Amino acid sequence: MRFTAADIAIPDSQLARDITELVRDTESPLLFHHSSRVYYWAALAGRNRGLAYDPELLYAGAMFHDMGLTHAHSSADKRFEVDGANAAADFLRSRGIGEREVEKVWTAIALHTTPGIPEFMAPEIALVTAGVEMDVLGIGYDTFAEADREAVVHVHPRTARFKEDIIQAFYDGIRCKPDTTFGNVKADVLADKDPHFHRGNFCSVIRASAWKG
Description:
mainly alpha, Hypothetical protein af1432, 2 strands, globular
């Protein structure tokens, strides 16, 4: 029997089953359960906001959003969000999903750590960020019924030290390519974990540019 929270369930499709299998086999249990919760928070937020969205695309965005933190999908020089977005796009194309739909998922993943922009975009894009913000930062926590929160966490549990564990997972995934954190919240993770990290400075980059004056 599929788990439901307030009538929200993982899509009953071969595509969704393939996504679940791939992510479970690739990510750590920490990231797999986090990504699964992100889907439920995103879908519940969509219901609460009265948004019409494609459940399969939302599920793909939620489940792939941290794939760029895994060894299998981490590049040497791209933001982890872009690595995850590329992995999702390749997967969806291999299943015959159209480019318009692929672009939505790619954008949802690529922008999920860039607050203030996704909320104005397509529902699938806005809701992936909303789900991540709920699970990691607790944004909108009180808009979810207590019974729904307890049901989701029962099936996809948070670790006893989830906050520290997820920060560590981010750090492990980005510490070898610190330049990819420029202008992004991930720079906060490196600053928290690495006393030798020097944050990129936008004004310094301007002053060091080749332009005179």
